[in-house]
């Protein structure tokens, strides 16, 4: 009986490994193909459209892309937006979630109800546009930072995480004369790195991949984030709609090599951040989703 269980477990582990390996390959191969095409010469690509290994390696597409002023500006703008908005989002979320996680806050259920309502209903695109216009955020870099800086779902995740922290720590801090802000920033936040990293990943990735905001509220090329530059490449195949575009020459060559290169440039930074936050990700989501 024991041997049968061991054989069954080994079979399951083998099938599980095969399935996960196949799934991983299905995930990695498209990214690898994009990178290979971006460094493969145009002639080699025409002879073989699906390439797993680079042929006649050329980095001219990256030289073209990375030497363009519009891409430099949009890349730095996107990095700044992600850093500033993520920091402010975590700050506001923590300041909101901390008092709502305390049992002694009067009317906390009413405040939670208001947050839940924002998760269920929205005004729609037109009222949102009118609001942004009246706030003077059209063609303003702050339109990427201020709207959506508070997210109800993320607040509830952090709130539930704060509930896991023993109340005795807060009571000890209050006995020593610590105020609420000191307790939050010196005790709760240092103990909440898993949920902080998780929400930073959620919000940072969302801001990095955001192209719709600029599509609706921005019509100045100098304020385009990197995803809108990528969109121009993918849809239009050139930089004509962006002032001082990078690409000249054969448009087909642009569609193949430069397009793949800009995809890599726009995707790689956020992919490099994830491994540093991965160890906190599962724990943060698990504990933040448990209601007590």
TrEMBL record:
InterPro entries: MetI-like, MetI-like_sf. Pfam families: BPD_transp_1. CDD domains: TM_PBP2. The chain crosses the membrane at residues 12-35, 75-98, 110-131, 137-162, 183-205, 260-277. It is a multi-pass membrane protein. Its main location: membrane. The keyword Transmembrane applies. It is found in: Cell membrane. Residues 75-273 form the ABC transmembrane type-1 domain. Keywords: Cell membrane, Membrane, Transmembrane, Transmembrane helix, Transport. The keyword Cell membrane applies. Belongs to the binding-protein-dependent transport system permease family. This is Aldouronate transport system permease protein. It comes from Paenibacillus eucommiae.
């Amino acid at each position: 009986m024991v041997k049968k269980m061991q054989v069954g477990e080994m079979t399951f582990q083998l099938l599980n490994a095969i399935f996960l390996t196949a799934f991983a390959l299905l995930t990695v191969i498209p990214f690898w193909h994009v990178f290979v095409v971006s460094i493969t010469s145009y002639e080699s690509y025409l002879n073989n459209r699906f390439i797993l290994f680079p042929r006649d390696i050329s980095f001219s597409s990256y030289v073209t892309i990375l030497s363009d002023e519009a891409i430099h500006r949009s890349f730095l703008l996107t990095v700044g937006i992600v850093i500033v908005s993520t920091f402010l989002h975590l700050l506001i979320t923590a300041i909101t979630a901390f008092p709502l996680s305390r049992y002694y806050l009067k009317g906390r259920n009413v405040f939670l109800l208001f947050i839940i309502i924002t998760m269920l209903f929205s005004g729609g695109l037109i009222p949102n546009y009118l609001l942004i216009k009246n706030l003077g955020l059209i063609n303003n870099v702050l339109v990427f930072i201020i709207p959506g800086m508070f997210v109800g779902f993320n607040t509830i995740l952090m709130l539930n995480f704060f509930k896991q922290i023993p109340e005795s720590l807060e009571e000890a801090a209050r006995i020593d004369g610590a105020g609420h802000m000191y307790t939050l920033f010196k005790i709760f936040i240092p103990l909440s790195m898993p949920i902080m990293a998780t929400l930073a990943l959620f919000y940072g990735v969302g801001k990095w991949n955001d192209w719709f905001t600029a599509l609706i509220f921005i019509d100045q090329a100098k304020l385009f984030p990197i995803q809108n530059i990528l969109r121009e490449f993918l849809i239009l195949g050139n930089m004509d709609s962006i002032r001082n575009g990078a690409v000249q020459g054969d448009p087909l060559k642009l569609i193949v090599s430069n397009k793949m290169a800009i995809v890599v440039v726009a995707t790689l930074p956020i992919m490099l951040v994830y491994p540093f936050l991965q160890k906190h990700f599962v724990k943060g989501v698990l504990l933040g989703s448990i209601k007590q």
